[in-house]
Amino acid sequence: MQQSPFPAFSVSPSSARRLTTCARAHYWAVYGSWGGWDDALPPSGPRRSAYILKTGQSLPGLVGTLVHAFARTAFDAKRADIPFNAEAAANAVRVAFMQAIENTQLRKYVVDPKTYPVVLELFYDDDVAVASRVQRCAADLDDALEALQLNGHFLAVMEGRAVVARCEEREQVRLRWPDAIEGGPDDFAVWVVPDLVYRLVDDPTGWVIVDWKTGNVDAASVDQLGMYATWLGTVAGAESRHVAAVAVYLRHYVEKVGQGTPEARAEAVGNMQAAAVKARALVEDDDVETNQPKPMEAFEQLPEGSKACRYCAFRRLCGRG
Question: For 101-116, how does the pLDDT look when each residue is reduced to its tens digit (9 = 90+)?
Fold first, then answer.
C-alpha cells in the first residue's frame, strides 16, 4: 500500500497545546517526521531525526507511560478474570524504566526508534548530568505506583465495584468547522485516548472518565477531559449530568473533578475548533484533504532562549541543542 505524501488532517489536545506554544514544533511533529519510520532513510537526516525525537520521551514522560502500562495491565487482568500480581507488575515497570535508560545509552533508537524510544535527556545531555534526574524520576515512579494502587478509582475496578468500558484506546471525535470551507469537508477529526472510562455496578447510568497524571498539578487537562466527555456523549449517548471527568494527580494525591460538565465540554470543543483553524492556516490553500504543509518557514519559531525551547524534543533540528 502506497504511503500518502502527507498525514491526514486532524487535531488533538496535545497538538492544540503544541500549536499554541510553538508552530515550528508542530511542523516537526506532524510533517517533518512523516515517513521517518522508513529504515532506509539516513539516520542523521532531518526526517529520520525528527521521527526519532517525536517517538522519544522525557524522563517524566517515561514515568507516566510506565504507570499507565501498570494500570492497563491491572485492568486487562480484571476484565479477563485472571489474577493480577501487583508486586510483579510493579517490578516489571521498574525494570522497563532502567532498560529504557540502557537502550538509549546503547543507541538502539537509531535502528528502531519505535521499539526503543530515545530518552530525550540522555540524547541532549551527558550521562553524569542526567544521573540525578534518573534517580529522582525512579523515585517518582515508585511514588506514583503506590498512589495508583491506593486510588479510589483504581480500587473500584479491581474490587469489582466498577466495570471498565475503555482503557487507553484511541478514539475519534468529529467536530464541525467553526467557519465554512468552500468545497471542503464540513468537519474534522479530533483524536483522544481516555486513560480509563468506567461505570459503577450500582449506578449503571453514570459514567466516570479518569485521566492519570504523574506530574505536577496544572490546568493542562481541561481540554483533554472535556474532549473525552464529548467523545463519550457521541458513542454512548451519555448526558452531561451523568458524566464525571476527573484528573488524578497521583504523586500529589489531588483530584480535579467536574471537567465533564456542559461548560467544560463547550470550552474544550471551542479550543479544538480554534486549534484546527490555526492548523489549517499552515496548510497550502487551506486544503485539509490534501494537507500539504506550507514551507517550514511559515511555521513560526519561538525566540531563541525561550523557556519552552529548553524542553522541546525538536530543539536540535532548530539548531538549539
Answer: 999 999 999 999 999 9
Q: What are phi and psi of 196, to 5 degrees?
A: -155, 130
Domain ranges, residue 173: 162-278
Buried b or exposed e, range 196-215, using 16+ CB within 10 angstroms: bbbbeeeeeeebbbbbbbbb
DSSP 267-316: HHHHHHHHHHHHHHTTBGGG-TTT-PBPPGGGS--PPTT-HHHHT-TTGG
On whether both 63 and 151 belong to a single domain, the answer is: yes
pLDDT 10s digits, 238-259: 665 578 899 999 999 999 887 6
Both 27 and 141 in one domain: the answer is yes
**Percentage of the chain exceeding pLDDT 70:** 95
Query: What pTM did the predictor assign?
Result: 0.92
102 in a structural domain: yes
Strand, helix or coil at 163? strand
Average pLDDT, the chain: 91
Task: Tell me: do 39 and 84 sit in the same domain.
Answer: yes
Q: Strand 254-256 relative to strand 243-249: parallel, antiparallel, unpaired?
A: antiparallel
The share of the chain scoring above pLDDT 90, in percent, equals 75
Place of cell 486549534: 275
Same domain (yes/no): 168, 146: no
CATH code of the domain in which 265 resides: 3.90.320.10
Query: Which residues in 51-186 belong to E strands, given as ranges?
Result: 162-166, 171-176
